[in-house]
Design goal:
alpha/beta; D-Maltodextrin-Binding Protein, domain 2; eight-stranded mixed beta sheet; 6 helices; 32% helix
């Protein structure tokens, strides 16, 4: 009995000497991504691992990091290039439309092309549409008869499945049997922060730049 008591006492003293593990709470980083920049959102999750929680927000002004394709019209906060993206004019595979010049692409999206072709664009103010307007339209308005895609995924699906359609796609979103007919240009993909990035935010951006 005495031996059993000593063993229990020793076990109690030994367990009391073991440091208690300190629970580390992962840091939460709020992130906003445009629809076109979502391929880099998955890379951001990889960079975060288990040490950081990525919290997606719907308001870019509430985000510690904003992922954006191309440079916004007004940029007053720090921005860091994490990759490049190519913007393309793409058509459905069976479309009779062939490779376009800049002038032909501008005329087509302004509504002066083949009336049997259905032109698809994005809402004004979206990053890809802003790039397209700047590099192709040069101040001309997109045809009012153009249809609006809510995001590159819908655009990609339309250009694969709908005959006689033509639209705008980032290279990362071009899949399936669609056909590119005009290279709009290659632009930077940016991680934008409200202030100079510190701590985990700076580490995440550095990881994205590798």
């Amino acid at each position: 009995m005495k031996t059993l008591f000593l063993l229990i006492l020793f076990a109690f003293i030994f367990s009391a000497c073991i440091p208690t593990a300190i629970a580390i709470t992962p840091e939460v980083v709020s992130v906003y991504s445009t629809a076109a920049a979502q391929p880099w959102l998955s890379e951001l999750y990889d960079c975060a691992g288990t040490a950081t929680v990525i919290s997606r927000v719907d308001d870019p002004s509430a985000a510690a990091i904003v992922l954006h394709v191309g440079e916004p019209d007004t940029l007053s906060s720090p921005a860091y290039q994490i990759d490049t993206e190519e913007i393309l004019v793409v058509t459905q595979r069976q479309s009779p439309l062939q490779n376009l010049s800049l002038e032909e692409a501008r005329a087509l999206f302004a509504g002066r092309g083949d009336p049997s072709l259905q032109v698809w664009v994005y809402a004004s103010g979206s990053d890809v549409q802003d790039v397209f307007n700047s590099l192709v339209m040069h101040g001309q308005n997109v045809s009012p008869s153009a249809r609006l895609a809510v995001d590159p995924q819908q655009m990609a699906d339309t250009l694969i499945n709908e005959p006689n359609t033509v639209g705008i796609l980032p290279r990362h979103w071009k899949v399936g049997d669609s056909r590119e007919i005009f290279p709009v240009g290659t632009i930077p993909v940016l991680a934008i922060t409200a202030d100079e990035p510190q701590g985990v935010v700076g580490q995440l951006i550095a990881c994205l730049q590798k």
